[in-house]
Amino acid sequence: MPFFTDSTEVAVEGVGAARRIGWMRFVGNGLGALPIASIILERQADAALWVLLLLNALAWPALAMLLTRRAREPAAAQFRCMIVDSLFGGAWIAFMALSTVPSALFAALLVADKIAAGGIRLATRATLALVVGFAATWLTLGLPYQPITSQRTVVLSLPFLFVYGIGLSVLSWRLARRVKSQNRQLQRLSRMDPLVELANRGFLIQRAQQVLQTGQHHGGDACLLMLDVDDFKRINDSHGHRAGDEVLRRIAIVLRQLAQPGDMPARLGGDEFAVLLRQRIPAEAMDVAEQIRHYLQEPGAPETADIQFSVSIGIAAAAGTGSAEDWLAKADKALYHAKRHGKNTASYAE
């Protein structure tokens, strides 16, 4: 959803990802140059190939990093550079005349790092570039084919295999860990009311439904408290909406303090709150309601010290049948019964 996305945050994340991949390019190109250099020596190739190898191993990674840093969309620029990596890799495979060990190693890792960085779509485009680079170079060189790999070239291929392979695994692990952490954070945000940092209505109903289903199968008591601030509009009109928000935060603090393991305080919306009480009979739920009222009468934070407010509370026990919405409606009915009988009190739904 674009209206929840900050372009600056996206740019910063893109720069970070591009930078990590950029440093991997220095490592991969540097180590990948070793088996190529071995084959250049074996074939006594022209000095121009040494120049091309040095440009690919040193100059190209530096240029790619510069391009991604200056790009408006660093991640997209980095993906384009990775496609160029595959193009160059295909050309070097052709130069090595399909020498079995380094050619297979280059092809496998050039596909693997694209999958790790951008998934199947990037890997497909990069693989196509690899095939184009290989075909163009192989045809230009006259279709050379020397699959046997010397022992020295095999040995010089090992650092590329182990160091770059392990580095790629670490990068993928860090990316997966970051994604998992972000997913947990998104899940937490989807369940939380941001103003008071309590569960929101949707998550409360989900948990209440679980409690009802568990109770139907295994027995057990549970109660639902529903409360709202008496004359909350008067507080907003007299003290301002900022003060009203502080009152809501004060209620949230009290609800968290009184909650036991397994309980769930939540904000339903506006000035309405609820508390799901596990393993509590109605008499115990009434005690909790009175504690909430008592705590809210005590002096709180400086922001609410000059504001007199109270809450009315409705209590409903879990029924053997019905949904969480029915349970909440029953507590809501008890709440309005408390409102009609003078406010600043608690009422139990029979």
Automatic annotation (TrEMBL):
Glycoprotein keyword on record: no
Cross-referenced Pfam families: GGDEF, MASE2
EC number of this enzyme: 2.7.7.65
UniProt keywords, alphabetically: Membrane, Transmembrane, Transmembrane helix
GO terms for biological process, alphabetical: cell adhesion involved in single-species biofilm formation; negative regulation of bacterial-type flagellum-dependent cell motility
Membrane-spanning segments: 23-41, 48-67, 87-110, 122-141, 153-176
InterPro entries named in the record: Diguanylate_Cyclase, GGDEF_dom, MASE2, Nucleotide_cyclase, Rev_trsase/Diguanyl_cyclase
UniProt domain GGDEF: residue ranges: 220-350
Protein name (record): diguanylate cyclase
SUPFAM superfamilies: Nucleotide cyclase
CDD domains assigned: GGDEF
Cofactor(s) essential for the protein: Mg(2+)
Gene Ontology CC annotations of this record: plasma membrane
Taxonomic lineage from the root: Bacteria, Pseudomonadati, Pseudomonadota, Gammaproteobacteria, Lysobacterales
GO molecular function, one term: diguanylate cyclase activity
Record PROSITE patterns: GGDEF
